[in-house]
Design a protein that fits this description.
Strand content: under 5%
Number of helices: 8
Oligomer: single chain
CATH superfamily of one domain: MFS general substrate transporter like domains
Number of strands: 0
Helix content: over 70%
Radius of gyration: 24 Å
Order of helices and strands: HHHHHHHH
Distance between the termini: 42 Å
Structural class: mainly alpha
């Protein structure tokens, strides 16, 4: 038990950043994007998978390169770069609209994938590089626990915020839908409030726009959250640099 607590104390600074931020942003966005693309924009399932696949491609590329970067660059700089890319991607997502094409989804997803790969590898390096070898088993368990809690809590919170914001936006947009509104009469002349089909179609469009507003608000929240994570990097302790063979030989002599 003491060994577990010791591992947790060593991993707190890096793993709370990785577990909370990465899983809230990454898995939260992954949980929000497919319903948004399919329900609001009418994307089929196959097309939804194709436009969200560049995120995985970006992660694959960055994970293959970050190990070489860490040999020459401070790990904290890599973490900041990953956070900046992830922040930029969710900022781009806050500009989504119902009339956009798939290009913005592809670009933002690819940038987020690169940032995610940098963060995963850099934070794992920080976490396990500051642990003694005998505590790495406990550290790996704590790492996965925090990541699972972060992903579950993040997805749940974002879904709740999306539903609540959508309902509030729907109520706000529906306030002006009444026969005595001159703006409605000028934009929709001849609209029949006694026709159930017309009312249902108008309500569906209001719900669609309200849902888009809720997604944009959630993306803005994730952007602000990512900015708030930046100062925590100063509390991250870089791992000790391993001694090279030349240094060991010099020490022996």
């Amino acid at each position: 038990m003491r060994r577990t607590f010791a591992a947790k104390s060593r991993l707190q600074k890096a793993q709370f950043s990785a577990g909370f931020f990465l899983n809230v942003v990454l898995f939260g966005v992954l949980a929000l994007l497919p319903p948004m693309l399919e329900r609001l924009m009418g994307y089929p399932v196959v097309l939804t998978g194709l436009v969200t696949a560049p995120r995985g491609v970006g992660t694959l590329i960055s994970m293959g390169l970050v190990s070489r970067i860490l040999r020459r660059v401070d790990v904290r700089i890599v973490i900041v770069a990953g956070l900046a890319m992830a922040s930029f991607s969710v900022w781009n997502m806050s500009g989504f609209s119902l009339g956009m094409d798939a290009r913005l989804v592809v670009v933002s997803g690819f940038v987020q994938g690169i940032g995610t790969g940098l963060l995963f590898v850099a934070l794992s390096t920080v976490s396990f590089g500051t642990l003694p070898a005998r505590l790495r088993n406990e550290g790996a368990g704590i790492l996965m626990l925090i990541r699972n809690i972060g992903s579950a809590a993040g997805i749940s919170i974002l879904q709740v915020l999306t539903v609540r914001t959508s309902a509030a936006a729907h109520a706000r947009l529906a306030e002006g839908i009444r026969p005595d509104n001159p703006i409605l009469q000028s934009n929709m002349p001849g609209f029949d409030f006694n026709a159930p089909a017309a009312i249902a179609a108008l309500n569906a469009e209001i719900g669609r726009q309200a849902a888009m507003i809720s997604y944009i608000d959630v993306f803005w929240l994730l952007f602000i959250l990512s900015l708030c994570m930046m100062p925590l990097i100063f509390f991250v302790r870089p791992p000790r640099r391993a001694a090279t063979s030349e240094e060991i030989a010099l020490h022996v002599k």
